[in-house]
UniProtKB/TrEMBL annotation:
GO terms for molecular function: DNA-binding transcription repressor activity; transcription cis-regulatory region binding. Keywords: DNA-binding. Residues 79-124 form the SpoVT-AbrB domain. It holds the Pfam family AbrB-like. It comes from Aliterella atlantica CENA595. This is AbrB family transcriptional regulator. GO terms for cellular component: protein-DNA complex. PANTHER family: SLL0359 PROTEIN. The lineage of its organism: Bacteria, Bacillati, Cyanobacteriota, Cyanophyceae, Chroococcidiopsidales. The keyword DNA-binding applies.
Length: 133
C-alpha cells in the first residue's frame, strides 16, 4: 500500500479545477485525489463520496436546499414572476418574504409606476421615533 500524506479536502474553484485535471479517473479516484477519504484503524482508505459530491455541488453554486417551510417540507421556489389573480389581487408569496427575512406586521409604502410597482419597507424604528417626538 502506498503511504502518502492525507491532504485537506479541496473546495470551491480549486476542487473544480482538480476534478477537471483528473480527467478520466473514476469518481472514487477523483474524490480520493481531492482529499475526500479517511483511513480506518486497520489502515484501509475509505472514500467519502457524499462529502465529495456535496462539495462539488457547492463549488458549482447549485442551491439544492432552497427555502423550507417551518414544517420541514420544501415549498415552491421563487420564480420572480407573479400574475394578477381572478379577483384582481397580486399576491407576493412566502418564498419572497422568507428570502427577504420579513416578519408578520412589516409595512411597506407602495409606489405605482406606469408598468411597475415599487415597494419600500417602512422602518419601524423611524415610526416610533416620529410618534414620540
Amino acid at each position: 500500500m502506498n503511504k502518502k500524506k492525507k491532504i485537506e479536502p479541496l473546495a470551491g474553484q480549486e476542487l473544480l479545477d482538480k476534478v477537471k485535471e483528473l480527467g478520466n479517473l473514476s469518481k472514487e479516484e477523483k474524490a480520493k485525489e481531492c482529499g475526500y477519504y479517511t483511513v480506518t484503524k486497520n489502515g484501509v482508505e475509505r472514500v467519502n463520496m457524499m462529502k465529495f459530491l456535496n462539495a462539488l455541488i457547492d463549488a458549482e453554486g447549485i442551491e439544492l436546499d432552497g427555502t423550507t417551510s417551518s414544517n420541514g417540507r420544501g415549498g415552491r421556489s421563487a420564480s420572480y414572476k407573479i400574475s394578477v389573480q381572478s379577483n384582481s389581487n397580486l399576491l407576493i408569496g412566502s418564498a419572497y418574504t422568507k428570502q427577504m427575512g420579513l416578519q408578520p406586521g412589516d409595512e411597506f409604502e407602495i409606489t405605482l409606476g406606469r408598468k411597475h410597482i415599487r415597494l419600500k419597507q417602512v422602518d419601524r424604528e423611524e415610526d416610533t421615533a416620529e410618534a414620540t417626538a
